[in-house]
Amino acid sequence: MIERSEYKGNPLIVIKRSEDDKYPFSFGITKAKLILENIDEIRKFVEENNKE
Predict the structure, then answer these.
(1) Per-domain residue ranges for the chain?
(2) Residue 5: closest CA among 43, 52, 16
């Protein structure tokens, strides 16, 4: 579940596992750019460490 929010006038994206998620993951544009720049390494990390 994805929501958009704002903090001190700056846009945020909020990722939740469910509507009632107590600990959502949120970040702004600077971290979003870092994620996109490193998406291949993030995918590799998940593949190497996913135990499900």
Answers:
(1) 2-49
(2) 16
The SS3 of residue 42 is: helix
* pTM of the predicted model as reported, rounded to 2 decimal places: 0.78
21 Cβ neighbours under 8 A, 6+ residues apart: 1
Q: Are 15 and 28 in contact (CB under 8 A)?
A: no
Main-chain dihedrals φ then ψ at residue 25, nearest 5 degrees? -100, 120
What is the block-wise mean pLDDT of the chain (52 residues), using blocks of 10 residues? 96 96 96 98 96 78
CA angle (44, 30, 13) in 5-degree steps: 80
